[in-house]
Amino acid sequence: MAFQKTKFSVFYQLLKDTIQNSHPELHAVAENFVLEERLTEQREDSYEAFITSPINEINWHGGHGKYIKEKIFVSPGTPETFTNHNQPNLLTNIDKDQYLVRLEDISNPVNRIGHSANEMFVYINNFHKNPGNNAAKDIIEKFLTNWNRIRDFRPIFAGFWGEVKDIFTDLKGNEIVNDDWANKLRDRFGLGHYDPMNGEPIPVLLLRYRVSDILDVNPEETKIAAVPTILDSKLSPFFFPTPQNGWNQGQSLDLSADNENDYSLNCEIVHKFIPYQASYIYHLGWITNSPGKTCEKARKIHLQYLQDDFIHSREI
Predict the structure, then answer these.
(1) Where is pLDDT greater, at 311 or 284?
(2) What range does the domain containing 255 cover?
(3) Are 290 and 182 in contact (CB under 8 A)?
(4) Which of 86, 104, 137 is the last residue of a domain?
């Protein structure tokens, strides 16, 4: 558990009170801090400067926002995630030939260049069919250049292609026509904040790239990827900390509309910033419905799976 030192006693009491008395999403955020096992003393000490005593929920959340702005969402600079302060969670031997995947909402980036998502999808489809289509290529390059310019250097959450390719291909590797892929992938990766609810569908891009692409951007660096912790992003009930022992990656929350026996653990990591390129754009689609499970239900199942796997590994 994190924040066990005496100097954090007021903060830790706030976490326990929040778990007992709060709305399910606030409960989940506080629970993540209690369950987190991966924070080093250096990272806890770094976080201390951004939480005050006596503390309440409002200034804790505000302090967390200041922490990630100054220590994590830095541009230019190196997020604390990829420094020696986070040494036990750094992944220095990750296979450079592995494909990673990331799902991005492109609503705002598209609007910034004066196009609709539908128009951008047409350009991208045309470019995929004919890479020599200069008109489509120019629009896509403008879109990506503008988007990369406004992005910060925050750690990028990504999953592994090998664990989700069943959504896109059959057992023989043939591509499947699946109009519902964006909803399925959103659920598999636990991206519950991508929820159209009663609003408009969310336009998304699936980006696919190799670990070697990250290394190419950071040729002198070995600290380019890590197991995610509660201090690597904004507060979110859809994040779930992964135990320290026996796990080499994070495990995303599965929001798929399956029964408990079909629940899947999917690996996730955070890696250093890379500028998006046209070649990374693998698929485009729309998220049209809400997640298949509530966050509260998924978290209960997820915790049980982690506990069962831990017990099983100890027996072996």
Answers:
(1) 284
(2) 90-315
(3) no
(4) 86
Number of domains, the chain? 2
Q: What does pLDDT average to over the chain?
A: 91
Cα→Cα distances 213→144, 160, 276, Å:
16, 14, 10
Choose between 132 and 216: higher pLDDT.
Answer: 216
Kindly tell me if the per-residue pLDDT of 61 is higher than 90.
yes
171 by Cβ neighbours in 10 Å (0-12 / 13-18 / 19+) ranks as exposed
**The model's pTM:** 0.92
Closest CA to 192 of 126, 53, 258, 291: 291
Q: Looking at the domain assignment, is residue 1 inside a domain?
A: no
pLDDT for residue 226: 97
Return the minimum-mean-pLDDT range out of 1-10, 76-85, 253-262: 253-262
CA distance 197 to 194: 9
Among all chains, which residue has been given the structure tokens 């519950």?
192
Confidence of residue 246 (pLDDT cuts 50, 70, 90): confident
Query: For residue 92, which phi and psi values (nearest 5 degrees)?
Result: -95, -10
